[in-house]
Amino acid sequence: MNIQGGTQAMRRANQWLKLLFSLAVGVGLSLVVLMLRIDPDIIRTQANSIAQQAELRVCPIGCVYTNVQAAVDAANPGDVIKVAGG
Question: Which strand (E) or helix (H) includes residue 69?
Answer without folding.
Answer: helix 68-74
